[in-house]
Write a structure and sequence with these properties.
The chain is mostly helical. The protein has two domains: 31 residues; 41 residues, no CATH class. Helices cover 57% and strands 0% of the residues. It has four helices and no strands.
């Protein structure tokens, strides 16, 4: 790795540490809206067991997501 790239990486890591400790504020933040799992499942026309199998989760987990008891 070139020295200038390494130095930039080190500065980034140090800045991240300062942000985590509350000594600095991030230059930008992101707000992510939670996915509407039920709407997504229905848009594919899949049943609970089919959609759960596609995602590799249990149907019970999918129901918890759709009913708002858990978040993906």
């Amino acid at each position: 790795m070139k020295k200038d790239m390494f130095d930039e990486l080190v500065l980034s890591v140090k800045e991240g540490g300062m942000i985590l400790r509350g000594e600095a504020v991030p230059s930008r933040t992101f707000a992510v809206k939670p996915a509407d799992i039920r709407k997504t499942r229905k848009s594919f026309g899949l049943s609970h067991p089919e959609f759960a199998a596609l995602l590799g989760i249990s149907p019970a987990t999918l129901r918890n997501w759709e009913q708002g008891r858990r978040k993906p």
